Amino acid sequence: xxxxxxxxxxxxxxxxxxxxxxxxAVGGTCVFTSxxxxxxxxxxxxxxxxxxxxxxxxxxAIHEADIPAHDVLLAGFPCQPFSIAGVSKKNALGRAHGFxxxxxxxxxxxxxxxLRHHRPRAFLLENVKNLLSHDKGNTxxxxxxxxxxxxxxxxxxxxxxxxxxxxxRERIFIVGFREDWPTNFSLDDVILPEGPNPNLSSILHPGDxxxxxxxxxxxxxxxxxxxxYTLTPKLWQYLQKYAAKHKAAGNGFGFGLCGPESVARTxxxxxxxxxxxxxxxxxxxxxxxxxxxxxxxxxxxDRPGSNKPWKIVVSDTQAYRQFGNAVAAPxxxxxxxxxxxxxxxMVALKSKRRMRA
Length: 357
What we know:
By secondary structure, the chain is of the alpha/beta class. It has 2 domains: 7-193 and 327-356, Rossmann fold, CATH 3.40.50; 200-323, DNA Methylase, Chain A, domain 2. It starts with 6 loop residues before the first strand and ends with a helix. Helix content is 32%, strand content 16%.
């Protein structure tokens, strides 16, 4: 689906472009990108190679006036200060979190200053579900107050990517439209796919020769998963002992062992460490990690047999980090499709106003 009349958007804290995929799918054109991580920049550039603009680095070093005019602002602003794991780690280290974290928490205010200066007609922000409850809800109240104070009608909703891909991945999405461009938009308008929902068989390497070999992920005549993704006996024994220890203590910590009919836990940025949250059972062998290609499919960045598979141009470690931090692409597409009628009206109205002027 496309608008027929294009709109311009910017991609802040872009990661590898999950949100961008959604808005390009409905006819938008990205005119500015900011992502500080050099490895994510490499992946972004490889997959959006026709861009005429550069991938900018640290957004705090970019003046808002130097950002091109745009209709929609997209931002997956850093979530570590608000996530359960991030807060626990910072508490253990005696460090501040949320907006008191000067290195990450205040990056939300870069979104605010850009919105204030450019007054785009709409925005979409994404973060972890725990943003809602961080600091007993105070952090989220500050965010919503700041956005509404700028003159936006704002809606938010936690959406689980499970409806589109075989993993549970709950994220909060915040949408705003300028109050002087009234809409009746609601995130309840996002259409969920009709069941049955996919399971892991839809993204795993079949290993039966039906898939083209892709080194270093698969090998041999049958395109079997490369041996390096199988856990070492030492690591597998450690994970089992760790899980047993926490089970005995009444905790829920442990590995997630999956088969083709399973639905995975949330893929995290720490997946490169041991793969424990999503391990694939193997007959006669210890479990294995997902390959980066399978992670690309798990996040909806490409599909088996795709004519244009996602380009993975970084190491396995960096690829796992990138997919673990990414927005599931099909979720972004569905949200963009729900916003699309209002974006269409927005662009049409803007054109009429220019003609009258």
